[in-house]
Amino acid sequence: MQEQDLLRNQRKRIAVLRHYEEVTHNVSKTCRYYGISRMAFYRWQHRYQELGLEGLKDRSHRPKHSPRATKTEVLAKLLYLRQTYHFGPDKIAMYLGRYHDIQISKSGVFRILKRLQLNRLPQNQRYSTHEARWRRYEKPEPGHRIQVDVKFLERIKGPGRRYYQYTAIDDCTRLRVLKIFEHVNQRTSIQFIDYALSRLPFRTYVLQTDNGGEFQGQFHWHVLDKGIQHVYIKPRQPRLNGKVERSHKIDDDEFYRMLEGVVIDDADLFNEKLKEWESFYNYSRPHGALGGQTPYERFRDKIGSSCKQ
């Protein structure tokens, strides 16, 4: 209730009491005139006699005991996930259930966020409509298609040095391999793909990249020499590399946001921190598109189902 409404209610109660004292001197007539009950009149009169004008202010209607109310520690965890990572209700409910054994529905999370006026995400994270929707797809088995891309990181203040994050993500399981380089060219691309292939726990059949110069020439033939098919997405269609593009947005929201204000001018140190994030992403972070599973849990399920067949 707005402050103006509270003052209006207080003035109305003062007017009722004064009407009784100065005009009617009769409780029943005053109540009929203002359309209120005698119980309300006596309650206001008693509060006015006891507390003065303060007694005529609106009081909280909150019950003294709310056994089903959300506990303070749950609210604290919920608010941390919302304000730090900008998670939505679905992701918050998954995290609370997975890591804190707190069972709360996504609709319950939304009601809490709405009550606290935190239900709207920052402008750059809100859902945007598209004139033409596209159908989501997913390869049936690990390694059937690996998407590879480069994320250009912000230039470091002071030295003016720039880093580049190479990312490889499996289309089926969302398992990722990440590495930072100080340059982006065909040589570093070859180094990264050799590193990624050695880290992925399955055979790769198809590698998918955009048409950047770092993925042309020597890189292309290097991949083919390894017995892996290399395909390019259509020019100016980054949505065709959607899984790796989306994972880069997650990096911004959940990893690089935590490094704001931290200057890292050593590639080895940067890679150590990135490897910690990669491990968390693959083994601990529930993935919305995987129904709350981690990428490694999806991989384990896929390997188990293949063995049964």
Can you walk me through this structure?
The model is unreliable at 130-134 (pLDDT under 50). By secondary structure, the protein is of the alpha/beta class. 23% of the residues are buried. The longest helix has 22 residues, at 3-24. Strand 2 and strand 3 form a beta hairpin. It has eleven helices and five strands. The protein has helices at residues 3-24, 27-34, 38-51, 72-85, 89-99, 106-115, 186-199, 217-225, 242-254, 267-283, 295-308; strands at residues 146-152, 164-170, 176-181, 206-209, 229-232. Helix 7 (186-199) packs parallel to helix 8 (217-225). The termini are far apart. It has three domains: 3-56; 72-121; 146-308, Nucleotidyltransferase, domain 5 (2-Layer Sandwich), CATH 3.30.420.10.
